[in-house]
Protein backbone atom coordinates (compact mmCIF):
# COMPACT_ATOMS: atom_id res chain seq x y z
CA UNK A 1 0.00 0.00 0.00
CA UNK A 2 1.71 3.18 -1.12
CA UNK A 3 -0.89 5.67 0.03
CA UNK A 4 -0.18 6.27 3.65
CA UNK A 5 -3.08 7.71 5.52
CA UNK A 6 -1.05 8.41 8.64
CA UNK A 7 -3.87 6.96 10.73
CA UNK A 8 -1.95 3.74 11.11
CA UNK A 9 0.93 4.41 13.49
CA UNK A 10 2.40 0.96 12.86
CA UNK A 11 3.40 2.09 9.37
CA UNK A 12 5.11 5.26 10.44
CA UNK A 13 6.38 4.89 13.99
CA UNK A 14 9.66 3.16 13.10
CA UNK A 15 10.89 6.13 11.09
CA UNK A 16 13.58 8.34 12.55
CA UNK A 17 12.65 11.88 13.64
CA UNK A 18 14.00 13.57 10.48
CA UNK A 19 11.72 11.34 8.41
CA UNK A 20 8.73 11.85 10.70
CA UNK A 21 9.20 15.61 10.39
CA UNK A 22 8.50 15.32 6.67
CA UNK A 23 6.14 12.37 6.37
CA UNK A 24 4.67 11.61 9.80
CA UNK A 25 0.91 12.01 10.04
CA UNK A 26 0.32 12.71 6.36
CA UNK A 27 -3.27 11.78 5.46
CA UNK A 28 -3.92 12.17 1.75
CA UNK A 29 -7.35 12.94 0.41
CA UNK A 30 -8.95 11.17 -2.55
CA UNK A 31 -6.84 13.44 -4.83
CA UNK A 32 -3.52 12.00 -3.70
CA UNK A 33 -1.89 15.42 -3.21
CA UNK A 34 1.80 15.23 -2.27
CA UNK A 35 1.78 18.30 -0.02
CA UNK A 36 -0.71 18.22 2.88
CA UNK A 37 -4.11 19.70 2.08
CA UNK A 38 -5.39 22.75 3.91
CA UNK A 39 -8.94 22.11 5.13
CA UNK A 40 -10.44 25.50 5.89
CA UNK A 41 -13.75 24.40 7.33
CA UNK A 42 -15.37 24.99 10.68
CA UNK A 43 -17.99 22.26 10.32
CA UNK A 44 -18.69 18.88 8.72
CA UNK A 45 -21.80 17.55 6.94
CA UNK A 46 -23.37 14.16 7.62
CA UNK A 47 -25.09 11.79 5.20
CA UNK A 48 -28.03 11.39 7.57
CA UNK A 49 -29.24 12.48 10.99
CA UNK A 50 -28.35 9.07 12.39
CA UNK A 51 -24.72 9.60 11.39
CA UNK A 52 -24.65 12.94 13.17
CA UNK A 53 -26.07 11.35 16.31
CA UNK A 54 -23.62 8.44 16.08
CA UNK A 55 -20.65 10.76 15.72
CA UNK A 56 -21.72 12.86 18.68
CA UNK A 57 -22.17 9.67 20.69
CA UNK A 58 -18.62 8.66 19.76
CA UNK A 59 -19.93 5.54 18.04
CA UNK A 60 -18.86 6.57 14.55
CA UNK A 61 -15.42 7.78 13.44
CA UNK A 62 -15.36 11.22 11.89
CA UNK A 63 -15.22 14.90 12.61
CA UNK A 64 -17.98 17.09 14.01
CA UNK A 65 -16.63 20.62 14.48
CA UNK A 66 -13.23 22.26 14.04
CA UNK A 67 -12.94 23.30 17.69
CA UNK A 68 -12.68 19.55 18.27
CA UNK A 69 -11.09 18.13 15.10
CA UNK A 70 -9.80 19.27 11.72
CA UNK A 71 -7.97 17.12 9.15
CA UNK A 72 -5.06 19.55 8.67
CA UNK A 73 -4.68 20.12 12.42
CA UNK A 74 -4.80 16.36 13.01
CA UNK A 75 -1.97 15.79 10.54
CA UNK A 76 0.18 18.25 12.49
CA UNK A 77 -0.75 16.64 15.82
CA UNK A 78 0.22 13.19 14.58
CA UNK A 79 3.44 14.50 13.11
CA UNK A 80 4.50 16.17 16.36
CA UNK A 81 3.53 13.07 18.40
CA UNK A 82 5.63 10.88 16.10
CA UNK A 83 8.58 13.29 16.27
CA UNK A 84 8.33 13.39 20.04
CA UNK A 85 7.86 9.66 20.46
CA UNK A 86 4.65 10.48 22.36
CA UNK A 87 1.42 8.49 22.24
CA UNK A 88 -0.62 11.58 21.43
CA UNK A 89 -0.47 15.32 20.82
CA UNK A 90 -2.96 18.17 20.71
CA UNK A 91 -2.19 21.58 19.27
CA UNK A 92 -3.27 25.01 20.47
CA UNK A 93 -3.46 28.55 19.11
CA UNK A 94 -0.19 29.63 20.76
CA UNK A 95 2.52 28.37 23.05
CA UNK A 96 0.93 30.13 26.01
CA UNK A 97 -2.42 28.47 25.26
CA UNK A 98 -0.52 25.16 25.40
CA UNK A 99 1.13 25.96 28.76
CA UNK A 100 -2.10 27.29 30.29
CA UNK A 101 -4.12 24.27 29.12
CA UNK A 102 -1.45 21.77 30.19
CA UNK A 103 -1.55 23.18 33.73
CA UNK A 104 -5.20 24.14 34.24
CA UNK A 105 -6.53 20.85 32.85
CA UNK A 106 -4.94 18.92 35.72
CA UNK A 107 -4.81 21.33 38.66
CA UNK A 108 -7.50 22.46 41.05
CA UNK A 109 -7.82 24.59 44.17
CA UNK A 110 -5.76 23.10 46.99
CA UNK A 111 -3.11 21.64 44.70
CA UNK A 112 0.52 22.74 44.64
CA UNK A 113 2.94 23.22 41.73
CA UNK A 114 6.73 23.54 41.74
CA UNK A 115 8.03 25.66 38.86
CA UNK A 116 11.43 26.57 37.47
CA UNK A 117 12.55 30.06 38.48
CA UNK A 118 14.16 30.93 35.14
CA UNK A 119 11.31 30.85 32.64
CA UNK A 120 9.59 32.66 29.81
CA UNK A 121 7.91 35.79 31.25
CA UNK A 122 4.34 34.61 30.63
CA UNK A 123 5.12 31.17 32.08
CA UNK A 124 6.23 32.94 35.26
CA UNK A 125 2.96 34.90 35.19
CA UNK A 126 1.07 31.60 35.16
CA UNK A 127 2.94 30.31 38.22
CA UNK A 128 3.13 33.62 40.09
CA UNK A 129 -0.26 35.17 39.29
CA UNK A 130 -2.82 33.01 37.50
CA UNK A 131 -2.59 29.75 39.44
CA UNK A 132 -2.57 31.35 42.92
CA UNK A 133 -5.68 33.33 41.92
CA UNK A 134 -7.52 30.01 41.63
CA UNK A 135 -6.24 28.63 44.92
CA UNK A 136 -3.37 26.64 43.42
CA UNK A 137 -0.23 27.22 45.49
CA UNK A 138 3.08 27.53 43.66
CA UNK A 139 6.75 27.50 44.62
CA UNK A 140 9.51 28.56 42.23
CA UNK A 141 12.91 26.95 42.62
CA UNK A 142 16.35 27.12 41.05
CA UNK A 143 15.66 24.28 38.62
CA UNK A 144 19.37 23.70 37.98
CA UNK A 145 19.43 21.97 41.36
CA UNK A 146 17.31 18.76 41.46
CA UNK A 147 17.42 18.84 45.26
CA UNK A 148 15.49 22.13 45.15
CA UNK A 149 12.51 20.21 43.74
CA UNK A 150 12.77 17.61 46.52
CA UNK A 151 12.85 20.35 49.15
CA UNK A 152 9.83 22.14 47.67
CA UNK A 153 7.55 19.08 47.48
CA UNK A 154 4.46 19.04 49.70
CA UNK A 155 1.85 16.30 50.13
CA UNK A 156 -0.43 18.20 47.73
CA UNK A 157 2.21 18.77 45.01
CA UNK A 158 0.74 17.64 41.69
CA UNK A 159 2.96 19.17 38.99
CA UNK A 160 6.58 20.12 38.25
CA UNK A 161 6.71 22.75 35.47
CA UNK A 162 9.98 23.91 33.92
CA UNK A 163 11.78 24.67 30.68
CA UNK A 164 15.26 23.59 29.61
CA UNK A 165 17.26 25.37 28.41
CA UNK A 166 15.44 28.24 30.11
CA UNK A 167 14.63 31.62 28.61
CA UNK A 168 16.81 33.72 28.62
CA UNK A 169 19.42 32.67 31.19
CA UNK A 170 20.01 29.30 29.49
CA UNK A 171 19.81 27.42 32.79
CA UNK A 172 19.73 23.69 32.09
CA UNK A 173 17.56 21.27 34.08
CA UNK A 174 18.73 17.69 34.64
CA UNK A 175 15.76 15.98 32.98
CA UNK A 176 16.52 12.48 34.24
CA UNK A 177 17.08 13.55 37.85
CA UNK A 178 14.02 15.81 38.09
CA UNK A 179 11.70 13.41 36.26
CA UNK A 180 12.85 10.58 38.57
CA UNK A 181 12.05 12.73 41.63
CA UNK A 182 8.57 13.38 40.20
CA UNK A 183 7.90 9.75 39.24
CA UNK A 184 8.81 8.47 42.71
CA UNK A 185 6.24 10.82 44.19
CA UNK A 186 3.43 10.49 41.66
CA UNK A 187 3.96 14.06 40.45
CA UNK A 188 3.33 14.96 36.78
CA UNK A 189 6.20 16.73 34.98
CA UNK A 190 5.29 19.34 32.38
CA UNK A 191 8.36 20.31 30.32
CA UNK A 192 8.36 23.39 28.07
CA UNK A 193 10.64 22.17 25.25
CA UNK A 194 10.34 25.22 22.96
CA UNK A 195 14.06 26.00 22.76
CA UNK A 196 15.26 22.52 21.77
CA UNK A 197 12.25 20.96 19.98
CA UNK A 198 12.04 17.18 19.56
CA UNK A 199 14.74 17.46 16.87
CA UNK A 200 17.36 18.08 19.60
CA UNK A 201 15.82 16.92 22.89
CA UNK A 202 13.04 14.46 23.69
CA UNK A 203 12.23 14.88 27.41
CA UNK A 204 9.98 11.78 27.45
CA UNK A 205 13.10 9.64 26.94
CA UNK A 206 14.17 10.91 30.39
CA UNK A 207 10.80 10.25 31.99
CA UNK A 208 8.85 13.47 31.37
CA UNK A 209 5.06 12.98 31.37
CA UNK A 210 3.91 16.00 29.38
CA UNK A 211 5.94 18.01 26.85
CA UNK A 212 4.53 21.36 25.74
CA UNK A 213 5.60 23.66 22.95
CA UNK A 214 5.50 27.08 21.52
CA UNK A 215 5.47 25.86 17.89
CA UNK A 216 5.72 29.55 16.97
CA UNK A 217 9.46 29.28 17.48
CA UNK A 218 11.65 26.60 15.82
CA UNK A 219 8.75 24.50 14.52
CA UNK A 220 7.38 27.19 12.24
CA UNK A 221 10.91 28.52 12.14
CA UNK A 222 10.26 31.35 9.74
CA UNK A 223 8.47 33.80 11.97
CA UNK A 224 5.02 33.45 10.40
CA UNK A 225 2.39 32.01 12.72
CA UNK A 226 1.63 31.40 16.37
CA UNK A 227 1.02 27.81 17.43
CA UNK A 228 1.38 25.53 20.43
CA UNK A 229 1.39 21.80 21.13
CA UNK A 230 1.01 19.44 24.08
CA UNK A 231 2.24 15.83 24.04
CA UNK A 232 1.38 13.08 26.52
CA UNK A 233 0.05 9.57 26.87
CA UNK A 234 -3.17 8.77 25.01
CA UNK A 235 -4.92 8.36 28.35
CA UNK A 236 -3.72 11.74 29.68
CA UNK A 237 -4.60 13.55 26.45
CA UNK A 238 -8.06 11.92 26.17
CA UNK A 239 -9.11 12.06 29.78
CA UNK A 240 -7.24 15.01 31.30
CA UNK A 241 -6.43 17.49 28.52
CA UNK A 242 -9.29 17.05 26.06
CA UNK A 243 -12.20 17.76 28.45
CA UNK A 244 -10.50 21.10 29.13
CA UNK A 245 -9.52 22.09 25.56
CA UNK A 246 -12.69 20.86 23.84
CA UNK A 247 -14.80 23.06 26.08
CA UNK A 248 -12.55 26.09 26.45
CA UNK A 249 -11.42 26.24 22.78
CA UNK A 250 -7.76 27.31 22.56
CA UNK A 251 -7.86 25.64 19.13
CA UNK A 252 -5.18 26.06 16.46
CA UNK A 253 -6.43 27.37 13.11
CA UNK A 254 -6.10 24.98 10.17
CA UNK A 255 -4.13 27.58 8.26
CA UNK A 256 -1.57 27.97 11.01
CA UNK A 257 -1.37 24.19 11.39
CA UNK A 258 -0.62 23.93 7.67
CA UNK A 259 2.17 26.52 7.94
CA UNK A 260 3.73 24.60 10.84
CA UNK A 261 3.47 21.33 8.87
CA UNK A 262 5.54 23.00 6.14
CA UNK A 263 7.95 24.37 8.76
CA UNK A 264 8.54 20.94 10.28
CA UNK A 265 9.76 19.61 6.94
CA UNK A 266 12.94 21.66 7.36
CA UNK A 267 13.16 21.62 11.18
CA UNK A 268 16.02 19.15 11.41
CA UNK A 269 18.14 20.96 8.81
CA UNK A 270 17.42 24.41 10.23
CA UNK A 271 17.99 23.62 13.88
CA UNK A 272 21.28 21.84 13.22
CA UNK A 273 22.64 24.62 11.01
CA UNK A 274 21.39 27.31 13.40
CA UNK A 275 23.00 25.44 16.31
CA UNK A 276 26.34 25.39 14.45
CA UNK A 277 26.04 29.08 13.59
CA UNK A 278 25.12 29.84 17.19
CA UNK A 279 28.25 28.11 18.53
CA UNK A 280 30.39 30.10 16.08
CA UNK A 281 28.77 33.39 17.07
CA UNK A 282 28.98 32.51 20.79
CA UNK A 283 32.66 31.65 20.44
CA UNK A 284 33.29 35.02 18.80
CA UNK A 285 31.49 36.88 21.59
CA UNK A 286 33.42 35.17 24.40
CA UNK A 287 36.10 37.55 25.56
CA UNK A 288 34.41 40.50 23.84
CA UNK A 289 31.60 40.78 26.38
CA UNK A 290 31.48 40.22 30.13
CA UNK A 291 29.66 36.89 29.87
CA UNK A 292 28.20 34.47 27.33
CA UNK A 293 25.54 32.00 28.52
CA UNK A 294 25.62 29.32 25.82
CA UNK A 295 24.96 25.65 26.68
CA UNK A 296 26.91 24.63 23.56
CA UNK A 297 30.13 26.21 24.83
CA UNK A 298 32.50 24.61 27.34
CA UNK A 299 32.31 27.83 29.41
CA UNK A 300 28.65 27.09 30.32
CA UNK A 301 28.64 25.58 33.84
CA UNK A 302 26.17 22.91 32.70
CA UNK A 303 27.70 22.26 29.27
CA UNK A 304 28.25 18.52 29.90
CA UNK A 305 24.70 18.01 31.15
CA UNK A 306 23.26 19.98 28.20
CA UNK A 307 25.20 17.89 25.71
CA UNK A 308 24.13 14.65 27.45
CA UNK A 309 20.45 15.41 26.99
CA UNK A 310 20.52 17.47 23.77
CA UNK A 311 21.85 16.60 20.30
CA UNK A 312 23.00 20.22 19.82
CA UNK A 313 22.54 23.42 21.80
CA UNK A 314 20.01 25.18 19.55
CA UNK A 315 20.10 28.71 18.12
CA UNK A 316 19.46 30.77 21.25
CA UNK A 317 21.81 32.08 23.92
CA UNK A 318 22.33 35.18 26.03
CA UNK A 319 25.22 37.52 26.67
CA UNK A 320 25.91 40.18 29.25
CA UNK A 321 27.59 43.56 28.95
CA UNK A 322 28.93 45.53 31.92
CA UNK A 323 27.38 48.84 30.91
CA UNK A 324 23.80 47.94 31.90
CA UNK A 325 20.70 48.89 29.96
CA UNK A 326 22.33 51.91 28.24
CA UNK A 327 25.10 49.83 26.72
CA UNK A 328 22.78 46.93 25.87
CA UNK A 329 20.42 49.32 24.05
CA UNK A 330 23.36 51.01 22.31
CA UNK A 331 24.52 47.64 21.02
CA UNK A 332 21.04 46.83 19.70
CA UNK A 333 20.73 50.24 18.05
CA UNK A 334 24.06 49.77 16.26
CA UNK A 335 23.01 46.47 14.60
CA UNK A 336 22.64 46.57 10.83
CA UNK A 337 21.93 42.95 9.85
CA UNK A 338 20.57 41.41 13.06
CA UNK A 339 17.05 42.65 13.79
CA UNK A 340 15.94 44.02 17.14
CA UNK A 341 13.15 41.55 17.77
CA UNK A 342 11.91 39.54 20.72
CA UNK A 343 10.97 36.50 18.62
CA UNK A 344 13.17 33.40 18.58
CA UNK A 345 13.52 30.29 16.42
CA UNK A 346 13.33 32.39 13.25
CA UNK A 347 15.66 31.81 10.32
CA UNK A 348 16.68 35.45 10.80
CA UNK A 349 19.13 36.48 13.50
CA UNK A 350 17.26 38.47 16.14
CA UNK A 351 18.34 40.17 19.34
CA UNK A 352 16.42 41.55 22.27
CA UNK A 353 16.96 43.07 25.70
CA UNK A 354 14.88 40.80 27.99
CA UNK A 355 14.69 43.22 30.95
CA UNK A 356 12.87 45.83 28.85
CA UNK A 357 10.88 43.46 26.58
CA UNK A 358 10.11 39.76 27.21
CA UNK A 359 10.66 40.03 30.96
CA UNK A 360 9.54 43.63 31.49
CA UNK A 361 6.34 42.29 33.07
CA UNK A 362 8.35 40.45 35.74
CA UNK A 363 9.29 42.59 38.76
CA UNK A 364 12.86 43.83 39.06
CA UNK A 365 13.47 41.67 42.16
CA UNK A 366 12.17 38.58 40.37
CA UNK A 367 14.35 39.38 37.36
CA UNK A 368 17.38 39.69 39.61
CA UNK A 369 16.51 36.38 41.29
CA UNK A 370 16.13 34.76 37.84
CA UNK A 371 19.55 36.10 36.81
CA UNK A 372 18.27 38.59 34.23
CA UNK A 373 20.38 41.70 34.61
CA UNK A 374 20.06 45.07 32.89
CA UNK A 375 23.08 44.24 30.71
CA UNK A 376 21.69 40.96 29.39
CA UNK A 377 20.85 40.48 25.71
CA UNK A 378 19.31 37.41 24.11
CA UNK A 379 20.35 36.38 20.63
CA UNK A 380 18.64 34.00 18.22
CA UNK A 381 21.17 33.02 15.56
CA UNK A 382 19.53 32.47 12.19
CA UNK A 383 20.43 30.78 8.94
CA UNK A 384 22.44 33.66 7.49
CA UNK A 385 26.15 33.06 6.90
CA UNK A 386 27.61 33.13 10.43
CA UNK A 387 30.46 35.35 9.19
CA UNK A 388 27.97 38.08 8.29
CA UNK A 389 26.33 37.86 11.72
CA UNK A 390 29.74 37.99 13.42
CA UNK A 391 30.79 41.01 11.30
CA UNK A 392 27.58 42.82 12.23
CA UNK A 393 28.06 42.09 15.94
CA UNK A 394 31.71 43.14 15.69
CA UNK A 395 30.87 46.58 14.31
CA UNK A 396 27.93 47.03 16.72
CA UNK A 397 30.09 46.08 19.71
CA UNK A 398 32.70 48.64 18.67
CA UNK A 399 30.07 51.33 18.30
CA UNK A 400 28.71 50.44 21.74
CA UNK A 401 32.21 50.87 23.19
CA UNK A 402 33.11 47.17 23.43
C1 LIG B 1 7.66 31.86 23.17
C2 LIG B 1 7.64 30.94 24.32
C3 LIG B 1 6.44 30.61 24.96
C4 LIG B 1 5.12 31.20 24.51
O1 LIG B 1 4.76 30.81 23.22
P1 LIG B 1 3.80 31.71 22.26
O2 LIG B 1 3.69 30.86 21.05
O3 LIG B 1 4.48 33.01 22.06
O4 LIG B 1 2.51 31.86 22.99
C5 LIG B 1 6.49 29.73 26.01
N1 LIG B 1 7.64 29.21 26.45
C6 LIG B 1 8.83 29.50 25.87
C7 LIG B 1 10.08 28.89 26.40
C8 LIG B 1 8.87 30.37 24.79
O5 LIG B 1 10.04 30.68 24.23
Q: Which terms summarize this structure?
A:
alpha/beta; Aspartate Aminotransferase, domain 2; Aspartate Aminotransferase, domain 1; 2 domains; five-stranded mixed beta sheet; disordered N terminus; binds pyridoxal-5'-phosphate
Describe, in plain words, how this protein is organized in 3D.
The modification N6-(pyridoxal phosphate)lysine is found at residue 217. InterPro entries: Cys/Met-Metab_PyrdxlP-dep_enz, O-succ-hSer_sulfhydrylase, PyrdxlP-dep_Trfase, PyrdxlP-dep_Trfase_major, PyrdxlP-dep_Trfase_small. This is O-succinylhomoserine sulfhydrylase. It comes from Sphingomonas rubra. Its cofactor is pyridoxal 5'-phosphate. The chain is an alpha/beta fold. The protein folds into 2 domains: 11-264, 3-Layer(aba) Sandwich (Aspartate Aminotransferase, domain 2), CATH 3.40.640.10; 268-399, Alpha-Beta Complex (Aspartate Aminotransferase, domain 1), CATH 3.90.1150.10. Helices cover 40% and strands 14% of the residues. The protein has helices spanning 9-12, 17-23, 49-56, 71-84, 95-104, 121-133, 146-152, 175-184, 197-200, 234-248, 254-264, 267-285, 303-309, 324-333, 364-370, 386-399; strands at 88-92, 112-116, 137-141, 157-163, 188-192, 210-214, 228-232, 291-293, 316-320, 339-340, 350-352, 376-380. The protein has a 7-stranded mixed beta sheet with strand order 1-7-6-5-4-2-3, with helices on both faces. α8 links the parallel β4 (157-163) and β5. It is globular. The model is unreliable at 1-6 (pLDDT under 50). It binds pyridoxal-5'-phosphate.
Amino acid sequence: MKRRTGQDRSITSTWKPATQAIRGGTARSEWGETSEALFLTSGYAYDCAGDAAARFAGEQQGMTYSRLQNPTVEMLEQRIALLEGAEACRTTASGMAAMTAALLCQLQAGDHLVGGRAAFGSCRWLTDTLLPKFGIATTVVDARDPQAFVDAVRPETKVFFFETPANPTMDVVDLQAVCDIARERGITTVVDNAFATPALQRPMEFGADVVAYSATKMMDGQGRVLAGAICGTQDWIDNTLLPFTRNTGPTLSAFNAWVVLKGLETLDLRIRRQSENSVRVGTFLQGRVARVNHPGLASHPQHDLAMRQMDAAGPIFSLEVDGGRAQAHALLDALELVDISNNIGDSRSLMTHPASTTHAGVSEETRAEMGIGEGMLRLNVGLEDADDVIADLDQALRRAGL
